[in-house]
Amino acid sequence: IVFAEKAGCDEAWREALKGWDVMESKIVNEWTAQARAEGEAKGEAKGEAKGIVGSLLRVLEGRFKEVPDELRTAIRGIKDATRLNACIDLAIRSRSLRLFRQKAGL
Questions:
Q1: Residue 36, CA distances (Å) to 17, 39, 42, 49, 81 in order
Q2: When comparing pLDDT for 42 and 7, which is higher?
């Protein structure tokens, strides 16, 4: 029925399949499982990045006391965990907030 719908003949298939006791499709179940796994992976990555953002901001606040709002916004816009971790390393090694921003491209 999924493909029949795409071809514009799903009603004919629905009629032809009346009375059949088919409630599941192995293929559709595979698609659903794949979509669920991808969604979970994206959610985990988002959660990981969010935690790293918090850590980065704490490091910056600890080293430089005040973190400007525009820098906070720029940091929150980074979704790549690898880049965020690199920014933490930069924050630890940078002598000033200006140098951190320059090296981090923020």
A1: 28, 5, 10, 20, 21
A2: 7
> Under a CB-based contact definition with an 8 Å cutoff, are residues 37 and 45 in contact?
no
Specify the pLDDT at position 34: 85
CA dist., res. 21 & res. 8, Å (int): 23
CA dist 95 and 64 (Å) reads 9
Q: Quick one: which of 93, 100, 95 has its CA closest to 71?
A: 100
- Cα 98 from Cα 65, distance rounded (Å): 13
Whole-number percent of the chain with pLDDT over 90: 40
Instruction: Identify the burial level of 3 via C-beta atoms within 10 angstroms of its C-beta, where 0-12 means exposed, 13-18 middle and 19 or more buried.
Output: exposed
Q: Are 53 and 76 in contact (CB under 8 A)?
A: yes
